[in-house]
Design brief:
Blueprint: H1 2-17, H2 23-34, E1 38-39, E2 44-52, E3 55-62, H3 66-72, H4 75-95, H5 100-104, E4 108-114, E5 120-126
Parallel strand pairs: 3-4
Antiparallel strand pairs: 1-2, 2-3, 4-5
Length: 133
Amino acid sequence: MKRLIFSLIFVCGFMHANNCQKDEVQVEILILKDSIPMKIDNVTTLIDVTCENNVLLYTYNLDFNKTDKRVMSNKKVIDMMQNRLSIQNIDFYCNSDFTDFYRMNNINMKWVYFDENKEELMSIEASNNDCKN
């Protein structure tokens, strides 16, 4: 009986751990990688997309002009920006038709933003736990 329970737990855990290998995820990653680097707006460029451990990771580079660089050196500004992006990205994860597949398959989404010096400015992650049902 103990072996059966252990086997079921192991198989369920193994199946859950492979959600990044699902065809839908791999196709999206391939499509996006073909377009990288992808300019999102005048500051933001998507530079990588990966999926590991049930987390779909979008990596961005932020390129600020001299004025923006001075403003972005202020910790309060970065915190405000992260708060705004957190609300926006979590809302996208929880409410977009585009992300239905990820929510149904317990694949989190994570967005990491780097400055031009490759230093991480902020990181945001969304999961089903963030969504109000």
